[in-house]
Design brief:
two-stranded antiparallel ribbon; globular; alpha/beta; 2 domains; 5-stranded parallel β-sheet; 495 residues; 11% strand
């Protein structure tokens, strides 16, 4: 449909003015949908039915959403004045607002990853070859799907048959063997760099929330210690700003998921000081009091490697001024692609198939919910309502930067969902009930994720609690034990 547009120009990042072209808005929305598998992947009954009905096809839906963007931009009267047009960033913000407000969370995520990826390319933090675009790069997904397909666990139905027929043990063993082999290769790559002459002084283990960074860090350093390397671990939680400097939202929640939640300037100064042989005064942060309660002297010995397990370890300002030849970066993400039926799209007769891949971030949300409930006395509903902060942070400064990694490790296993399910269902299950979300109707992201994960849980055949507790089935050092418990490794955040 035709909409009134009074905006003639937009302001580029270099402050020059160019003609505003609504066609470009349409193109970027359609491209984002295409990379995410089509609008059908985001069909949510009761949320965006009317958009699907109005559009009919992917192109039609993209046109409808682009029109909404134009309407929103025109709602600000300042933009009608020639010298006060919307900036490129403002247009991008409105595109995201329209997508998320209409329930297109996957497409909004794809657009966000693409947007910030371009940002980091412009900042020279990454180059085009390191640009991962929508965060679900095809070159990574295809080998993972092929590995699962070869073991008949690339679909929910196939995985369920393995569980029901009692064939989980071989799948667990083979999955863990594959993971351990990737750790062997990662350790060897670090050794190869040292033997090639690089003066490695820092190792970052980074990746999205609940990907398994702690287990990976423990296992990787065990291998490197066996090669004679020595480590000094720096706990970056001590660099959080005081609680009073973290503003709260209307449900008294705080955004700790952004790198700016840390005192980046002080952290960078301390890293440079440690690498230079100086003694730093590392802050001691009291989470009970919500501020720094003191400081302690820390000095790196000349043969020690700084070890940092950090969400935002690849965030460029943290390592500004440090020689890249001194840094070894490990990226871990829980990636287990699994096809499931898409019960959300039976009414949509668009141009896409009726299957969808499970979302990696949904499984990580389940992992974090269980960890927060068990080890941090954090209500499951609070974790769900907080997840939009988590996702925004990782789409800004974690996932788009994973191309910087020396090695990438997959912390997702085919048996994760069956192992997690018994903790989420039944009378004592930790997953929130639908009515728990009733007081939060404006938290559309939480509503959609809750619906999607609930349907996934209903479709998956779970293990029993007895099976989950059995170390002969799931070893005590498996990544999933960070979350389901009974780990034989020391997990600091679970202490």
């Amino acid at each position: 449909m035709a909409v009134l547009n009074r905006i003639g120009k937009i302001r580029k990042r270099n402050h020059s003015l160019v003609t505003f072209d609504p066609e470009k808005v349409f193109n970027v929305i359609l491209l984002s949908a295409d990379t995410a598998g089509g609008f059908a992947q985001d069909y949510v009954p009761g949320v965006n039915d009317r958009v699907f009905a109005a559009g009919g096809t992917d192109r039609g839906i993209a046109e409808a959403l682009a029109d909404m963007v134009v309407v929103c931009l025109n709602a600000d009267p300042r933009h009608h004045v020639t010298n006060f047009p919307p900036t490129v960033e403002e247009v991008q913000d409105v595109v995201l607002h329209v997508l998320r407000s209409n329930g297109f969370t996957k497409i909004a995520d794809a657009y966000t990853a693409y947007r910030w990826g371009h940002h980091w390319v412009r900042e020279d933090a990454i180059d085009d070859a390191q640009f991962v675009r929508n965060g679900y790069p095809k070159e990574e997904l295809e080998p993972l799907l092929a590995w699962n397909h070869a073991r008949d666990c690339d679909t929910v139905e196939g995985l369920n048959e393995i569980v029901k027929s009692g064939r989980v043990k071989p799948l667990v063993d083979e999955s863990i063997e594959h993971f351990e082999a990737t750790l062997d290769a990662a350790a060897q790559k670090a050794i190869d760099r040292i033997e090639a002459g690089d003066d490695l002084k820092m190792i970052f283990v980074s990746g999205p929330s609940s990907s398994g960074k702690t287990t990976t860090t423990v296992k990787l350093t065990e291998r490197l210690r066996a090669q004679g390397l020595r480590f000094l671990m720096l706990n970056l939680d001590n660099y959080f700003w005081s609680l009073i400097e973290h503003p709260t939202d209307w449900i008294n929640d705080r955004n700790y998921e952004t790198p700016e939640a840390l005192d980046i300037q002080l952290l960078n100064e301390h890293l440079q000081g440690l690498l230079s042989g100086d003694t730093i005064q590392q802050p001691i942060y009291s989470f009970k009091e919500g501020h720094r309660s003191g400081a302690k002297p820390v000095k790196r010995e000349s043969d020690q490697i700084l070890l940092l397990d950090c969400l935002h370890g690849f965030y460029p300002p943290i390592t500004a001024g440090i020689d890249p030849a001194q840094i070894f970066r490990v990226y871990i993400e829980a990636m287990n692609p699994l096809y499931e039926p898409n019960p959300m799209i039976p009414l949509y007769q668009g141009d896409r198939f009726d299957r969808r891949l499970t979302r990696f971030e949904d499984v990580r949300l389940m992992r974090r919910t269980l960890r927060d409930t068990t080890h941090r006395n954090h209500p499951p509903l609070a974790t769900l309502l907080h997840w939009h902060y988590v996702r925004a942070g990782e789409l800004h400064s974690i996932i788009p930067l994973k191309g910087l990694a020396d090695v990438r490790i997959n912390g997702g296993m085919p048996f994760d969902l069956p192992a997690l399910k018994p903790f989420f269902v039944g009378e004592d299950g930790v997953w929130p009930r639908p009515e728990d979300l009733d007081p939060y109707p404006s938290y559309l992201d939480a509503q959609i994720r809750h619906q999607r994960i609930t349907q996934l849980l209903e479709s998956v055949e779970g293990l029993t609690r007895e099976q989950v507790d059995d170390h002969s089935l799931i070893p005590g050092d498996a990544i999933v034990r960070e979350f389901i418990g009974n780990s034989t490794l020391e997990i600091p955040h679970n202490e």
